[in-house]
Protein 1
Amino acid sequence: MNNRLAKMRKERGWSQEQLSKKLGVSRQTVISIEKGHFDPSLPLAFRLADVFDSTIEDIFRP
Amino acid sequence: MKDEKSGKATVNVRPRSFGTVRFGSRSMPALTTALIPGLASSIVLGILLAGFMPQSVPWMVKALIVAVILCPIAVSLWWIILVDPNTLPGTNPHAEENIESHWYGRAEQLSYRIFIGLVSAGCLLASLMGADQWALVLVCVLIAMLLILALSYAFVRFAHHE
């Protein structure tokens, strides 16, 4: 699924490692989501929205 | 100390290389705690299994040999039972959501399908070569695998049924 995750992460000056620690998942998971190779689970999607203080729809585009 | 976000009081637990126990006082090191039941289990197993060893060796020596061999395994198994995985260094709080878990699940599915294919092919080959006993064994393995799949499906289906 297309997403703005990498762009939003860089805007906040976070590394992939830092974001993965905030989310409680592996760095490889963050890499795969950013590349659109892996769709996060619903709880993870909600945590992503919470971390970025945004909505799921704002981060992910079908 | 207080957690900044929630305002709740938290306890600082010194990180342990092999984690801490999941039950009771969570500051107890899991590996040290596993030593006692592990040693006890290996001694009990040593005593029980000593009867299967050659009679020429004294009973106490047999029990001790078995206990020493089984001790690392018993301690490891007790460690697995006792440890809180969240206290192990390098673990993620949401490991089930990692892509690695997804890859592992897909690998399990793929390996099952490959194994079914291999057993079926082996069964066919054995039949063509006239190795009836091997063909029969492989057919039984195939049926068992399919039965296990059906039972697993039923379990998962009804476990989620509300």
Protein 2
Amino acid sequence: MSVRADTLAGAAARTPGRASRHRREAWIGLGLLLPAAVLVFAFTIFPVGYNLWLGFFTKHSLRLTSTWVGLGNYTQILADPDFWRSAWLATVYAVGSTALQIVVGVAGALILHQRFAGCDFLRGVALFPYMIPTVIAVFVWRWLMNDLYGVIPYVLSTLRIPGMPEAWLTHTTIMWVLIVLSVWTFFPFVLVNVLARLQTIPPELYDAARVDGASAVRQFFHVTLPQLRNVLLIVLLLRGIWMFTKFDVPWLLGFGGGAGEAIRTLPVFTYQRSFTYYQAGMGAALSNVMLALLLMAVTIYFVAFPPSEDETDA
Amino acid sequence: MRWDSDADLRRLVAERREGTLGRREFLARLGATAVGATAASVVGTSKPAGAQKKVVVTTWDTEPNPATRAAMKAIVDDFHKLHKDIEVRAEGMGWGDMDRKLQAAMAAKSPPTASHTQTYVVTSFRAKGLIEPVDDIVKAIGEDKIFPSVLRWLKYPDGKYWGITHAWGAEILGGRGDYAQAAGVDPQRWKTWDDWLRDLPKLNKAPQHYGLALAGIPFFVNEDVYMLTGANGGSLFDAKGQPALESPQVLGMLEFWKKLKPNLPPGWASHDYLETLSAWATGKTASVYMWGRTAGYIDQYAPPDKRNPDVFQVWPKTTGPLGKAPLTQFDNEPWVIYADAPADEKAAAREFLKFFFKPENYRKHCDSVPVHILSIYKSDFQDPSYLNHPERKRWKPWLDAQLKWVEIGRAHPLLVCNPQDMVIPWIGDVAATPILADMVMAVVERGKDPKAAAKEASDKIVRDIIDKTK
């Protein structure tokens, strides 16, 4: 116990009224924390713990009974080619859509960082795709890309480009549609974050670069990009995690079957195990595997890209 | 209620304002007062001892369209007039929503009192002890008044009825008469798959319109898989309920599907069922598998001069080389009563369903979608007041075609190629998965050998469904 604690304890002993007041305040403090603690336990700790526990059972979703299988679900998962295929599809989707979101988001932010007529309006408009409910965005894209009525296939067909697909929501092309749709929907998140950081870069850095004769390209690579490093690392991490675990967009676009089997990513595969195969235990185990894969990826990410300690980069 | 209408709160706030009460003590007493007020309000709103408690019956049905909701409300209102001690809460929702909602409710042992479902789901639920027999309702309606072909699918080997159909329908092959005429094709002469395959390319004028529209979403692929397999003389299951996907009949069905593909829209694998109906109504396809509900799409999308059965015709379904007769899907959606519902609710639900099926009430239900929600009463199909409904008159060939399927006994519930398939306990579980659809896509879209795809699907059914059901 520290000297300060001893002193406090001694003082409390000398003044019993103060000690009881401290105890009362401690109880009030605990009481005030209790609702939050109960909520965190009920909605985070318990579900995660229960999911880990459930992963060791076979359990039909419609029945209360379950059977202990130990690591049986996990061995089946690792031996299942469908699991590896969905993990691969989830990776392709996450990497492809995140990379393009970063490119489009940074490009958009660089444009909107400039002052020109209507730039404030455009900054607002750029957020629209992110504000539209996912189900609406996906259904609009389904209509736009429909091979019988869609505007986009029609316009593309009029261009008569050799090798252009007749339909886009097919096994061979639906992943591209999913990625483009996701980039359109989610790039504003990148744009807003990058734009906010761009507006805090000290202009003196650019002045100094110009004095040294740096071209615009060199200014981008040697001033802007290093200054964006930390925000890009966070955005990359968050968007990567969110795209890897994204369920609603691939589900609504492909409904998990038909051409949709070509975008049956890991979250969709997990959902189907739980809610169409009625395998609650297997679904739980798959969720746990997905969590483990993400933890591994995040760990590797932080080892490869440690956060910069330079305060000015923050 | 305003806060200052409470004397305790007024006094508390006054003391705080005067400074005689510290902030912490004020907050603590405020919390205590709030808890006390909540408890008092709960006690205050509870019913006095001896007051009559209403039994609440919750029903979920799959007809969310406004006309059926209005009909259901009228039936429920009339029921309430006779049964003041029962409150029926009738909710309508789409199939997809119902499936998920029901699943969550069943897992939580908190199902509705009664709901619509599919015939094959009755088999699954019965095997799991999740529903109760409804013999008393069938008896109250009068067993002899109902189409035998409607009743047969819900009477199980134990001799009990485990569901009672709210309406029936048979899937028909709809075809554009104007396109057939322009192509010089007479579909009424089709008997076999070869006949169909011979003429489909003539009806396929891509990209203006395609020969046939099929849905690629798994549930609807399942429909086509078992209908075509049945038409080819086979079944998806053997006598022991094990998958029979490597049979010549199923492999023949897969080969046939490959031959159909050039006549389908290029994006068929992503089309859902409703897209195929609108494609037919708008003239983007010459033919489609459809139900009576399609009449609504035709009225909505087709040119006014074409909204008639001369243009939107019924074409014959055909037989595969190994089969003796075509097979179609029987939509036999039954009401079921859930075993886990409280006893008084179940009893009240039975009363409500007996009331629902009284002819004067039931007619309102049928008339809400006249060509799709078909009556289970045999006599209605002799009754001019039923048949002379303007919509039923207009689409009479569609009604006749459905009735014919029922009369010849070749309309079977989903995945039931042979009547004995009905009692396979995992049939509903197979229908819920994308296994069969994946098999078709592997062959038709990814060029996989049918035998290898069928074996893979069989293994999945055994590993992921049958073994897990044991």
Protein 3
Amino acid sequence: MEMKLQFSHQLQEAKKLEKVKIVRKNEFKLQELIEGLKKNPKAFECGAIACFMGIVRGIGKNGSRVQKLFYEAWEEEATKILTKIREEILKENKNVIDLLIYHVIDELQPGDETVFIAAIGKHRHDAINAVSKTIEEVKTKPPIWKKEYTEKGSYWIREEK
Amino acid sequence: MKVKVRFFAELREIVGIKEKILEVTNSPTIYNVLNLLVNIYGKTFEEKIFDEKGGLSENYIILLNGKNIRLLKGLDTTLQDGDEIAIFPPVAGG
């Protein structure tokens, strides 16, 4: 009975955790997200959580000091595509139990967080590979753009393929 | 018939708005809509969207109701009343 209750509590907690989200600056707490992953009912089968956090680089593509980085997104579509990326990564490797993708859309300063990806997996390679694949997809698929403002001018950034 | 066009990133800056409802009368195609937009927003818009041969610039992506027109009939893709067109440059998340 007690175990059943505990399981149901864990299930509820796991449900509360949003897996994919477009957020504003400082709108998510790293530790809470990681704790959320650990509450997944299958977490006891896992031996690793891997995380990636993107931050704003202080030196721009033009070699000049960055003043700010402006993110723009077609939020509805970006959320759909991020959700699809997550589903595909989870489908690809059944040893990855859960995956979170949080992307910040805002005006940011050097050092600010831009994107957070975390995967919980049965083994470290499962979790690390899932995070690595996810960030590559996040850079090229969802309709998100960024404009770098530097001491020597501003420009929209194009990802190198 | 009416279609909605959405602009993003540098194109949004060029046209100065996020979206526009356009009235399309004759031959409702993507090409026709782009030409209507060129008439409104001028040469800068034209140079961004079209390549030297008059085709769609490889730097731009056009989605019709969420589908890339390159997977449809390109600039010749026909439109229906209420369609939504999104035009944007290559993405750069992360």
